[in-house]
């Protein structure tokens, strides 16, 4: 919460005041509760302990913890829409085996939620830059090898898509 407060500060004076408040709040944290939460994260395999060269111990996200963090961020994801369309279509195509059906459906659902339109069951289109978002989704669902991202300046029946995207 303190990081968000810092983002909205417009003056150095306001930033210093926010830092002071963060320090005060940090001191109020019940250490027993903090340690319990860390132990729960360790038990759930969301974090690992890493011993540093100076004999200190760091708490780091495990592979499962990173996946969980990515999933949480996935729920908040939005694609920024620029003021002007650059004339390029972004096409996502995928061929995901039946044994990964849930991941396939999750991918399709998330892309539609973000505003993609279906050209075919495994071909979706979007008019604005979204490669990073598609890569992120592929990483979360572990589908990198099954998904392709294409940019093109021509699609037949383009007028219909322009209407659908209000371009």
First-to-last CA distance: 38 Å
Outline, from the CA principal axes?
Answer: elongated
Structural class: alpha+beta
Strand percentage: 15-25%
Q: How can the largest sheet be summarized?
A: 4 strands, antiparallel
Mean pLDDT: 81
- CATH architecture annotation of the largest domain: 2-Layer Sandwich
Strand order of the largest sheet: 4-5-3-6
**Uncertain stretches:** 1-7
- The total of helices stands at 7
Instruction: Give the radius of gyration.
Output: 22 Å
Helical residue percent band: 40-55%
Helix-strand pattern:
HHHEEHEHEEHEH
The domain count comes to: 2
Please give the number of β-strands: 6
The CATH topology annotation of the largest domain reads as: Alpha-Beta Plaits
Q: Which CATH class of the largest domain applies here?
A: Alpha Beta
Q: How does this structure look, described?
A:
The chain has 167 residues and is α+β, with helices and mostly antiparallel strands. It folds into 2 domains: 62 residues, no CATH class; 76 residues, Alpha-Beta Plaits (2-Layer Sandwich). 48% of the residues lie in helices and 18% in strands. It has a 4-stranded antiparallel beta sheet with strand order 4-5-3-6, covered by helices on one side. The protein has a two-stranded antiparallel sheet with strand order 1-2. The N terminus is likely disordered.
